[in-house]
Write a structure and sequence with these properties.
alpha/beta, DNA polymerase, domain 1, Beta Polymerase, domain 2, Beta Polymerase, domain 3, 4 domains, 7-stranded parallel beta sheet, 17 strands, about 40% helix
């Protein structure tokens, strides 16, 4: 059990308590405990109750709940709280801009306990009768409801992958399992997935299916058969298990991994060569052509092995036939981190903690890029504060922390395209990341000019999270991608692939185009806590989906 899971649980309890109208002190206690666990440098799962209570902000009651959760993977107290809250009220919290306090207010004043009732109330302008709600907030809620509908039954890859890995670990304990792999869009590492697929080979499929149904977290059995079983995990994600004979495993794995377009293209290739592909094999007439694994499967067609991330029918089959598939970037290629926050601005951990955490992970350099002064909501640094931080970094480097610490800033791009700090100050920084954090509703041509003006600034190194989107909650602002990429190429600027799982911004098609134009991509965690440094892996997967190699990635190179 990782700290982030414990922190999320404590935050969830705080939300439920607030919805139930519990006293503010109790609610805040769980919120503080969640932040404390998030920032804790050790693993709270390794501590007993007494040791947990030695951590500031964690009392006896919370320590007891943490131990139960870490020991069993479940906390009945959460079920008890949820049972007292209308299910629709919890669903309402998925709407961007509607937190528990405002949701409870609407429930108390208007008896709104579902997304459907909320939508009707907005359409009838009834929210305007509640203090604190106006035309603008009502319009935002309606937009949030539309987004919720658009992304119904869709989930962040980062939320689903741990569930899939737990299921794999559970099934590996079953002696009837011969081979097992995650398949589907999750194996292709798509940023958003609808469900998860597991492929297992076995001579005793009934035993495997029975073992699958005993996994922790299953809340509903959708369908159950000897070779296919579907369940719902944690009340949200559908998990499908398919059990095949071991000699069918490579074909089934390929079939249930590739996108629909990739599979159609492969079937067309087979047909042109007088063969047929199905989930059960590659056939020449009635005879199945043997393949012990996926590499052998592709060799049947004279193709190099196509990594799962590329199986989208975007030229990978032709490239595999010509021997031109890229040598995709890996986690091991990343030498440093260029977008990291600390408690100087809106980060949770202090400077030295984040630096030590980066060094512990084997990185050679790390750039501290707290927010600039205009981002007051994120405690952006004043000019004096930034200068003090630069001095602190210089002192830290003298201590030789085992990693090179770079001075930097995530500098706001103002609406006219100018930057938030003076040129004299920017010249003193090692890394300047320019970012749009305001005026998202500009017209596309105006936003394009705004970003291009920033990219033309001689001190800017990287354009941060280029679209500003938050997956499943906020769409990105619009601009001319081709013009932005050509501007970056002309002025020698890099584009960030923001690795935070709620962003994964830039998309693969644009990352690939950037590489074609010679624009470097910087894979950054945008970390605000120690554990956030590990988000780099999501960025690497996204980069692989964009066909990026080590040479295409800025921070896969040595610094200076």
């Amino acid at each position: 059990m990782e700290n982030t899971q414990v922190s999320d649980l404590l935050s969830e309890i705080g939300v439920y308590l607030e919805l139930l109208g519990e006293n503010t002190f109790k609610v805040r206690a769980y919120e503080r405990a969640a932040r404390t666990v998030d920032a804790f440098t050790g693993r709270v799962a390794d501590l007993d109750e007494k040791q947990l209570q030695e951590i500031p902000g964690i009392g006896k009651a919370i320590a007891e709940k943490i131990r139960i959760f870490c020991s069993t993977g479940h906390l009945p107290y959460v079920d008890e709280l949820k049972s007292k809250i209308p299910a629709g009220l919890v669903e309402m919290l998925r709407i961007p801009s509607l937190g528990p306090k405002r949701a409870k207010l609407l429930f108390d004043k208007l008896k709104i306990d579902s997304v459907e009732k909320l939508q009707i109330a907005c359409q009838e302008n009834r929210l305007l009768t509640v203090e604190g709600f106006g035309d603008r907030s009502q319009a935002k809620i309606l937009e949030g409801i539309r987004m919720l509908s658009t992304f119904k039954d869709q989930h962040l890859m980062a939320d689903v992958l741990p569930l899939a890995q737990l299921l794999v670990a559970h099934l590996k304990k079953c002696r009837a399992v011969q081979r097992i792999e995650i398949a589907g869009s999750l194996r292709r590492r798509k940023k958003i997935v609808k469900d998860l697929d597991l492929i297992v080979s076995s001579k005793r499929p009934d035993e495997v299916s029975a073992a699958f149904l005993k996994a922790d977290g299953i809340t509903e059995i959708i369908a159950h058969g000897e070779t296919k079983t579907s369940v719902r995990i944690a009340n949200k994600i559908q998990a499908d298990l398919r059990v095949v004979a071991d000699d069918e495993f490579p074909y089934a794995l390929h079939h249930f991994t590739g996108s629909k377009a990739h599979n159609i293209a492969m079937r067309s290739l087979a047909k042109n060569r007088g063969m047929k592909i199905s989930e059960y094999g590659v056939f020449k007439g009635k005879k199945r052509i043997p393949a012990k694994d996926e590499e052998a499967f592709f060799k049947i067609f004279g193709l190099a092995y196509i990594p799962p991330e590329l199986r989208e029918d975007r030229g990978e089959i032709d490239a595999a036939a010509a021997g031109n598939l890229p040598d995709l970037v890996t986690d091991a290629d990343i030498q440093g981190l260029l977008h990291v926050h600390t408690s100087w601005s809106d980060g949770i951990a202090d400077l030295e903690t984040m630096v030590k955490a980066a060094a512990k992970r084997g990185y050679k350099y790390v750039s501290i890029t707290d927010h600039s002064k205009t981002s007051s909501y994120a405690r952006g640094l004043s000019v004096d504060q930034l200068k003090k931080q630069m001095n602190e970094i210089a002192a830290l480097n003298k201590k030789k922390p085992g990693i090179r610490v770079l001075t930097g800033s995530e500098v706001d791009i103002l609406p006219d395209g100018t930057l938030d700090y003076s040129d004299d100050l920017l010249e003193k920084l090692d890394v300047v990341i320019a970012a749009v954090h305001s005026n998202f509703n500009m017209k596309p041509d105006e936003m394009t000019k705004r970003i291009c003006r920033a990219l033309q600034h001689p001190e800017v190194d990287i354009l941060a999270h280029p679209t500003g989107r938050l997956l499943l909650s906020r769409p990105g602002y619009e601009f001319d991608w081709e013009e932005i990429l050509k501007c970056a190429a002309k002025h020698g600027k890099a584009i960030e692939l923001n690795a935070h799982p709620e962003r994964l911004d830039i998309d693969p098609v644009h990352a690939k185009r950037a590489a074609e134009l010679g624009v470097k991509i910087s894979i950054n965690p945008d970390a605000h806590r120690e554990g956030g440094l590990d988000d780099v892996r999501y960025g690497v997967w996204a980069a692989r989906r964009g066909w990026l190699t080590k040479k295409d990635v800025l921070n896969a190179q040595a610094w200076g």
